[in-house]
Amino acid sequence: MSGDVEFDRIAPVYDETRPPPSEEEVRALAEILTGCRTILDAGVGTGRFAIPLRAHDFDVLGVDLSLGMMRRARAKGITRLVRADLTRLPFPGKVVDAAFMAHVLQLVPDPRPVLRELGRVARHRVVIVLPEWSERQTTEEGRELMRRYRELAAELGYSLPERGTRYRHTLNDLSAIAPPKEVRVVPGPSSLGLTPEERRGRWGTRMYGRGGLPPEVHATILLRLQAEHPTDLAVGTRSHTERFVAWDPIDLHDAI
Ligand SMILES: C[S@@+](CC[C@H](N)C(=O)[O-])C[C@H]1O[C@@H](n2cnc3c(N)ncnc32)[C@H](O)[C@@H]1O
Q1: What's the domain range around 42?
Q2: Best of 6, 7, 243 to mutate for ligand 1, by most ligand atoms within 8 A of CB?
Q3: Taking Cα atoms as reference points, which of 93, 142, 153 lies closest to residue 120?
Q4: What is the pTM of this model?
């Protein structure tokens, strides 16, 4: 699967591309997971959610394809980590109280095999964080900005790898597969306190993980983009709303 290569590349700068979950998110998640103790964090990444979950006394087992991302999680103290594909989890059924997955669904072409696996391994709950932005198409301005970033990198002698495909699975799509028990809409972390330069910097890093570019080259490209597109194109491309979608595992198991 190519996703692990892309995230291995992004891993060193991933935490610069998005802030930790908001307090509201962590509180909502802890409430939804009430009564659960062992949590499988599917696509744990650098531990962005695993860290606050652990702080709430959940016992977290992280699964991911990318060793680079998991190394970051390990450095932060998440030690129970397994490298595996979410469509083929190497665990027996009902091995954890809950399976949780944040910001992963947009990377998989078909949600069903992943949902089925999460429903198989969880005893009480399956929870997915489905950001509102994941349903949106990239705007024309966004595409132009990406194209120009690549072009400027090429001018400076760097050929950027293609970004992997993103898939737009909507809440309606998921509900059609299996109606969730609960959907909570929660404010995510806000980037409103950032300057336009910082927002654009975060955008560039998110799109390309710097693609192996030296930081000063990345900074030069961002300055050029800033001069060419003085309006803050990175603003308004993302909402700050997250949806926590929860199922009883049996419903996923029976439906898929
Ligand atoms: C955008 S990151 C999200 C990480 C973390 N959940 C967060 O919210 O910050 C997506 C993660 O999913 C992992 N991933 C994508 N497809 C996967 C798959 N089929 N099996 C296991 N991990 C996968 C990637 O390696 C990456 O670490």
Answers
A1: 4-136+164-190+239-255
A2: 7
A3: 93
A4: 0.89
